[in-house]
Amino acid sequence: MRAIGVIAAVLLAGQTTAQSAQEVAVAKHVLNQAQIRSTAENREYCGYIGYTKTGALASTRPMRGQQDECTPRWPKSLDVIASWHTHAAYDEDAYSEVPTVNDIEADEAEGVDGYVGTPGGRLWFVDTTDMIVSQLCGLRCLRSDPDFVKGAEGRIDQSYTYRELLRREAE
Question: Nearest CA to 85 among 120, 49, 121, 46?
Answer without folding.
Answer: 46
